[in-house]
């Protein structure tokens, strides 16, 4: 699902030619949260995070292509998909972050940052959260100074204020900051 600026699909020679998603971030990346949620099975595998000269961060992760039936939750998914996303969010919110202490918060849990694919055998859904640019430890990491003004952020999700898990839940439940 690498289609935004600074997001690329790459053949990784160090991984035997595996196709991976490479992302460049202009600031720190929530790698602790991404890695923990990947271990829980709800984020793409995180292969590498490197701080580059000039302040960019290089992130190499598992690619979740549409050819493998991955779709954004925002792509008119049925109620069962939304329920699966909520259940997955509860699982990852409950997990403690190893080493960092505390619990992880995504920071931008809108439906376009949630990928799903239906399991043919059970009819259930695989759920993966993506875009951990704003992720961090709940109550420690804060919202950035410039937040997307087109998003109806939940109460308390304000520049400079701490990330809270209830903000993730509220964004997901409001269908991504666009109230129903």
Can you walk me through this structure?
This protein has three helices and nine strands, in the order ββαβββαββββα. It is of the alpha+beta class and 180 residues long. The chain has a single domain, classed as Transferase(Phosphotransferase), domain 1, CATH 1.10.510. The protein is globular, with a radius of gyration of 16 Å. The mean pLDDT is 90.
List the helices and strands and how they pair.
Layout: E1 7-12, E2 18-25, H1 31-39, E3 46-51, E4 57-62, E5 71-72, H2 79-94, E6 104-105, E7 114-118, E8 125-129, E9 136-137, H3 165-173
Antiparallel strand pairs: 1-2, 2-4, 3-4, 5-7, 6-9, 7-8
Helix pairs in contact: 2-3
Précis, in short:
The chain contains three helices and nine strands; from the N terminus they run ββαβββαββββα. It is of the alpha+beta class.
Biggest sheet descriptor: 4 strands, antiparallel
Query: Given this structure, which CATH class is correct?
Result: Mainly Alpha
Mean pLDDT score, rounded? 90
- Helix and strand succession? EEHEEEHEEEEH
What does the oligomeric state look like here? Answer: single chain
Largest sheet, order of strands side by side? Answer: 1-2-4-3
Number of domains: 1
CATH homolog superfamily:
Transferase(Phosphotransferase) domain 1
What is the overall silhouette? globular
At the fold tier of CATH, the topology name is Transferase(Phosphotransferase), domain 1
Q: Helix share of residues?
A: 10-25%
Strand content: 15-25%
In the predicted model, the low-confidence regions spanning at least 5 consecutive residues are: none
From the helix content, strand content and strand pairing, which structural class follows? alpha+beta
Q: What is the CA–CA distance across the termini?
A: 26 Å
Number of strand elements = 9
Number of helices: 3
Radius of gyration: 16 Å
CATH architecture term: Orthogonal Bundle
